[in-house]
Amino acid sequence: MESGFIEAARAAAAAVDEGRLWQSLMDLAAVGARSDGGVCRHALSDEDIAARALLIGWAEARGLEVSVDEVANLFIRRRGRQPDAAPVLVGSHLDSQPAGGKFDGAYGVLAGLEVLIALDEAGVETQRPIDIVAWTNEEGGRFDRSCTGSSVWAGASELESYLGDIGADGVALGEALAKTLAATPDLARRPRRWPAHAFIEPHIEQGPVLETGNIPVAAVTGIQGVRWMNVEVAGKAGHAGTTPMAERHDALQAALRAIGELNTLMSDPHDRVRFTVGRVNVTPNSPNTIPEKVMFSIDFRHPDEAVLEDRGGRIAEAVKTAAAPCRTLITPTLTMDPTTFPEAMVAIIEANASGLGIGCIRLASGAFHDALYAARVCPTAMIFIPCRNGLSHHPDEWAEPRHCAEGARVLAATLAQLADTS
Ligand SMILES: [Zn+2]
Description:
Elements: H1 7-14, H2 18-29, H3 46-61, E1 65-68, E2 74-78, E3 88-93, H4 106-121, E4 130-135, H5 148-153, H6 173-182, E5 188-189, E6 198-204, H7 209-213, E7 217-223, E8 225-234, H8 251-265, E9 274-276, E10 280-283, E11 293-302, H9 305-323, E12 327-336, E13 339-340, H10 343-356, E14 360-365, H11 371-374, E15 380-385, H12 401-418
Parallel strand pairs: 1-5, 3-4, 3-6, 6-15, 7-14
Antiparallel strand pairs: 1-2, 2-4, 7-13, 7-15, 8-11, 8-12, 9-11, 10-11
Bound molecules: zinc ion.
């Protein structure tokens, strides 16, 4: 892949219509709208089905080809000159958190649609087809395990393993999936897996960096890795009024020493380490009994595998030493290595932003995305746009129309270029 700037890319970018993209975002946000301005659109719910119907209607009105696979990933194709060539894939997800916003996921899908329309209006033909995708259940808001559609498509997990998952409303994923697929009986069916030439996921940043720097676009370099674990600290219960301080094995005091030590271990002058203790359970949790047992969670993230290995590997010893004489047990709950997007993909986004005169920096993603799974099977990258106060997963989530359009322009140029490369 080359990272130059081509005329078709410029024409496609110029045809992106800010008002039309904004209107589609607002129209989609009306599906599952909350009274506080947010969106509640659970995966495979009636609202999700309605959002899909809206999108399908827009696509078919433009003569685009709509299809779906058995995990209800929804695809919208603009044909290429080589109809059988592996397509360039673009998109994100339509589901939201229970108290989510208008842009998380929706932006990636609708920026894709805006670009396909812009390509038509600019008269740009591409060699490869371009497919928009709306992945099923990215958020994990109804069914706990997230990125269901993209992980099945990428072969990271089997659809069958998800079917029995029970949603927060008591409905099995298999049942909700069947209902969703039954709502669009006429759509062409895609096979479970097929090769893509590349995948681009546009998304709001969900952090403050772009807004703070007044930069409209980021070329995302990858997704940081995580180490999640639970720490159990075992002490001895006793009477709070009678047990001498020197004889105590107070599990909560030990946990506090351990967390203090972890704060030292995780300190980072560059502020790239993300370290959170988000849950603490105290047993018996009584005001006048010395705590016998404490469980606390660790969420440690970093884009660099070496840092995850090094500091992650020192957690157990730090906790054990600080918590003595209490005993400690650490149980890992999730280990995800960082995902690094190919340099060529990041460079194409950067070059197109530069060619369009749109400011762009490189940034690693702090949150998980479907791109994490897509990256396992095809060259993948993401385009971030700013969101107000870095806020997401919240009804007040907001992106400026101008930034939505600038991200879509960079996307248009990038897709036009990727769809013309062999
Ligand atoms: Zn998202």
